[in-house]
Give the backbone structure.
Amino acid sequence: QGQEKLSCKLKKENGTHMVLCELGNPMKAGAQVRGWGFSPTEPITLLSVSGLEDMGDAITFQLQLQSKNSPSSANTSVTVTVPVEAQAEMDLRGNSLPATIVLPVSWHRVEGSRRQEDHGIKVEHVYQLHNKGPSTVSGVTLHLAVPNQLGGRFLLYLLELGTEGGMSCDDPPDLNPMQV
């Protein structure tokens, strides 16, 4: 009964971020304030907090009621700890260009050559890693194993590795060993 919308504002004081909410002006004697309910019948206070990716598995709020009319020496406060769980669904897509290669039976690699075409047909493998959300992600590591040798002979000769979009890659130790 008598639900009212809170008027809240963000305030920063001494390096601490606070959300100040005006509960009533004036608040009637015996009034009750309910927030943070977890059932459909109780009101829910929604707080939007950003930058929680590196906060760990919980965030703690210090809640305090203060009256402007009657200053009290009892500075009572309540600590509320809310679990935080970042969720993000990642999607990895890959494609090879060209998709299929057939080498002639009589084809042989030219020993000692540093020309790419003397070592086979160029195949480009493109992988795209997408964050489908809802949270942002950081510190993602993708390990990609490529079978480059079979029976001591080159199956795929890894020539180069490149990235786009602010990602970094560690070159494998067997990248372009003949300096083609």
